[in-house]
Amino acid sequence: RYSGVAACTHVGARRGQCRAAGGSREQPCYAGLAGTIFFAITTEIAQSSNMTNAEIQNAKSLPLEGVRVIDFSQLLPGPFATQMLGELGADVIKVERPGIGDPSRHNQPRYRENSVYFNAVNANKRSIALDLTQPAGRAVVRRLLEDADVAIESYRPGGARKLGIDYQTIRSFNPRIVYCSISGFGQSGPLAHIAGHDLVIQ
């Protein structure tokens, strides 16, 4: 299980900030965060399958073929990480709210009818709209999670538990799940309840 904000590994980065984009002003680096999430998840998958990283890299098929990822994350860090998992062959199913979807679907700039922002980090995925506040939606998501290898979410701490998709709940019926929680300030501590994103950190 992984949670919290990871530091960027780009050259010139310090304390999770990065100048890799070429500007002089330091910005929080979500490329570094997504990359660290991606590395943690793929390492856990390799360990649970008793394969070395070298064996996965040398496999003839895509290395994550047969791995199912249920993606409850929104906006940038989580979707970027799960897009990379999809590029490596994972079957990524993105769960979105009915009528609204991922909020980044509505972000500017737009190309024709679609958000460039959303499309840039949500390739290689299937999507399903489920209302997790309703029993019917929870029943469907449970069926998806029973056969899943990875679950990833980006709610505020406690949000996933209210929807029945927290680690302890999923682990009770799928003990092999690899679970990733993303939050701005970790899962505990005085700032844990604060939603964390780029503008908050700036």
List keywords for this structure.
single chain; 202 residues; alpha/beta; 5-stranded parallel sheet; two-stranded antiparallel sheet; 34% helix; globular; disordered N terminus
Characterization of this structure:
- With 202 residues, the protein is of the alpha/beta class.
- The protein is 34% helix and 15% strand.
- It is built from eight helices and nine strands.
- It has helices at residues 30-48, 53-58, 77-87, 116-120, 135-146, 159-162, 167-173, 198-201, and strands at 17-18, 27-28, 68-71, 91-96, 110-111, 114-115, 125-129, 150-153, 178-181.
- The protein has a five-stranded parallel beta sheet, with helices on both faces. A two-stranded antiparallel sheet has the order 1-2.
- Helix 1 crosses helix 3.
- The longest helix has 19 residues, at 30-48.
- The chain is globular, with a radius of gyration of 17 Å.
- The two termini are 28 Å apart.
- Mean pLDDT is 80; it is low at 1-30.
